[in-house]
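hey m, so remember when u said the tokens were messed up on ur end? i reran from scratch. heres the input so u can diff it against urs
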Amino acid sequence: PTRPDATMSRDGADGAPPMRKRVRAARLTLAHASGLSASVVGGFACDPADASRAYYVAGGNVVSAPLKTVGQQGFLRGHDGDITCMAVSNSGRYMATGQAGVNADVRVWDLVTGECVHVLSEHDEGVACVAFSADDRLIASCGVPSDGKLFVWDVETGGIVANGPCEPRDAKAVAFSPVVVSGIFYTFACAGADVVVYGVDAAEGKMGGQKCGVGHTKRQYCSAIFDDDGERLHCGSTSGDVASFGTAGCVLRALAPCCKGGALVLAKDPTEEGRFLVGGGDGTVSVFNPLRPPTVLDALDHVWKLKGAVTSLSFVDGEGGVTDGDGNRIVDRVVACTSEGMKYLCPTRKRLHDARAAQNSSKNDADPSTEPLLLEESHVAPVKLVKFAPENAVFGAKNANANGDGIGSCVSASSDGALRGWTLDPRPNALMRAGLRTGAKPLCVAPTTSTTMTGWDDGNVRCHSNATGELLWTLPDAHVGGVSAIGVAVGQHFFVTGGVKGEVRVWDSRSRRLISTLKEHCQAVVGVECLGDDVHVVSASRDRSIITWDLVHERRVAQHTQRVGSINAFELFRADGRDATRMVSVGQDRSLSFWDLMEDRALQVVPGAHAQECTCASLSPHGVLATGSKDQSVKLWDFETGALLAAEHAHCEAVRAVAFSHDGSTLVSGGGDGVGMG
């Protein structure tokens, strides 16, 4: 492509875009993390000291956030791998977290100050579960089977009180008895293929365990909790029943069916003494009462049925709910998190719903306060794509107003085929939900004002409605091997796709008929951009080439080649206006390459921008370049000079996508840990 006057200066004369001033300073401040490590059982907990605040695991971070209101999030950051377990002390003063990998540390956090007070580094392969004693003085941690270690730690000093081999070796849950004798004798249990009850003499540093007898009953246990008096231990199994053991003789006393798909979580119900709630792998929240003889029908008498397996249950104040005989408000709500990334606020008493239903013959008259309320949702698989929609785009059928006055709306997609449309102001809220359950994976996304187009590894292009998430149309077999890039013309009358085999194809937006095929790349196309004149298209490929195409004559008019390593992403600097020709590319060589389509060679190369391969890039209208890498970091650069402005270790796995909002004030990143950050 050619400028109207190739000799015009870059100082703004003759209508040329002025040279932008150097960006002298920029900073990255993590404001919100949208994501829940839904596979972490017990990875969500309400603050016992403040019912309005909750903590949850998001990748390698713990997020502290208001439960139901909009407010500033806090972050406990220190792990360099996925957090696998979390426990909050009974007083709400401390938290313990463990992680997977070679740096399998247990970190102890002071929740008042937000500081990590101890790093317990005795586990080698991973930490399976942690628990606090009733008086907050001890922590028990069990390693994964390849680690096979059990430690009891002193919370105040961080020292080892006792340790030994973990039995059972595949421990999935650990729980302390609420009874502490003479302030030094503690009891706790580990559950897995077997159930072992341990006694600890904290003064002498001695520990011993006894395996519980089960007779001919064989179960795989995944959750554990003691009665208030410590005389019975209840363990949930993967079969969906709850086994009750007497702690005095360590023998099986009863077996109660509660759900299907596994009794993954057990929580004491503060609304009724001796009663427990069971979170099931089938998505049910059911009641377990060890004082009542169990029946087979108990497995069908669930309180709620939620979307996904229930992985966390935590009680909160009911806020205007049920009162006792003296008129005092009691705890009557529970937050349930599921494997689908959903957080629900549920009333615990089904009788409220039954009473309201009996009074109202019409289902439409049901009291909404007795129904589970969806608080938040998130991706549960690696977030591969993030892109902001046009400023006037509208997501959600009830969202009548566009978001042009705020941060805007963005679209994200994860490797499990889930597609979400979000508003980000005041906090992330998913208004559009779509996706596939066929196993196909999204490779690229292009949101428009009313629709979102995606390219998939099955070779198809799909278009979903921004309002409802409905699949509007499918363009089958657009590319053999997968559609790896997609771009929409400024006038939206055509769109361009790039394929895994290197083809670039132009399609009519209305009829979706193929207009032309451009084939010079020999490897996957990683990005396509339509220039402001809607006549020229730029494509980049893993074959290290960047090609500018003339769509009228269907031929190449320019080619630029990166010297070393495949290109993973490129961004056109649209702030230059309609005649924008400057761009940047990132790739396997870990460097930043700055280009002008009117020049033969790169304007500048910044080597060693990241410690590992660069995976993604985004440009703000103010000339700030954001890059993400497999080294888990996000960095900001001055587009004019290539100077580093800021850097942050963002995710605990590779950063897969970054995107700036239209005003440049917000940067959103998506990672292999399934967390979106902004």
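this time it looks ok to me. DSSP finds one helix and 56 strands in the chain. if urs says something different then somethings off w ur setup not the seq
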